[in-house]
Amino acid sequence: MYDKLVKAGMSREVATRRVYRPFIVRGPAAWTATWHAPRYAGGFHLHEGQDGRRREGHPAAAVTAGRVEFDVGVLGGRVARLLLPDGSYWYYAHLSDWNSTLESGSPVDLGDVIGYCGNTGDAVGGPTHVHFGHYLASGQALDPMSDLIGWLEAAEHRAGVTERGAEAA
Fold first, then answer.
1. The pTM is what?
2. Judging by DSSP bridges, how do beta strands 166-167 and 161-163 pair with one another?
3. pLDDT single digits (tens) 103-124
4. Sequential DSSP letters for 95-155
């Protein structure tokens, strides 16, 4: 896929971003960097995450091992929280459904499918996506973009890309 995009005229940098990012959804997706953008559905609040756009029903995967907890909320719709031992968690919202082979409280490993891309909650009628957030045990939200970029760089390394846009011989 990467080589096809470059041969079609896309820059190596853009092709790399499209092929290797993101990792919370399987397959190509587009990111919208909207950390702390104002939101008004359900009352004014700041957007506490990043949105990975993908077609409805595409798998959302665990970014690390942990325990998954399922819930439904007015803003997030169908949500999954990937709970970590220190009390922090990764937050997946607007899912169309959860992985029916898992129960709330089930352990999951890195890469396990925990849900499916959708537009539930306050995203009804909008584009399908997974809202991805990171919360400390205290409840403080952190922008997950640096983690997403780190995972991209790790994938580039695994794929033999030695520096942005340059493949290893």
1. 0.79
2. antiparallel
3. 999 999 988 899 999 999 999 9
4. ESEE-TT--TT-EE-TT-EEEE-B--GGGTTS--EEEEEEE-TTS-EE-THHHHHHHHHHH
Residue 31, SS3 per DSSP: strand
Element containing residue 73 per DSSP (H, E): strand 66-73
> Is there a contact between 89 and 68 (Cβ–Cβ < 8 Å)?
no
Tell me which residue of 32, 23, 118 sits closest to 79, measured CA to CA: 118
Residue type, 164: R
3 state SS of 74:
coil
pLDDT digits (tens, 9 = 90+) for 127-142: 999 999 999 999 999 9
Q: Which 3 state secondary structure label does DSSP give 5?
A: helix
